[in-house]
Amino acid sequence: MSLLVARQSADVRFSVSDSGVGIELEHTTSIFERFGQIKRDPRGHGLGLYISKCIVEAHGGKIWVDRSVDGGTAAHFTLPMAIA
Fold first, then answer.
1. Contact criterion met (CB below 8 Å) for 49 and 83
2. How many Å apart are CA 75 and CA 57, to the nearest integer?
């Protein structure tokens, strides 16, 4: 697992990546929906990434996931420099 924080133009970009099994591309947007889960799991409610998206967007940022360089998953979000 790795964490990267970098200035990107007028934003700060935060990225967390791992080397796990990765996420299928068809799920990269649905996991940010309310109650969105890739697999139904009674231990979760599918709200964590939805709430994260609401917070990040309320502060003028963006949030997304993609495949990391080593095949795992990379989660990213940006916030304007004035807020970060």
1. no
2. 15
Q: Which amino acid is at 60?
A: G
Calpha distance 21→36 (Å, rounded): 19
Please report which residue ranges of the chain form alpha helices under DSSP H: 48-58
For β-strands 2-8 and 73-80, DSSP reports them as: unpaired
**pTM of the predicted model as reported, rounded to 2 decimal places:** 0.81
Class in CATH terms, 2-80: alpha beta
Q: What does the domain layout of the chain look like in residue ranges?
A: 2-80
Q: How far apart are CA 6 and CA 4, in angstroms?
A: 6
**Closest by Cα among 79, 3, 69, 73 to 31:** 73
- 29, with CB counted inside 10 A (0-12, 13-18, 19+), is exposed
Q: Please provide residue 53's backbone torsions phi and psi, each rounded to the nearest 5 degrees.
A: -60, -45
- Within the chain, which residues score under 50 in pLDDT? none
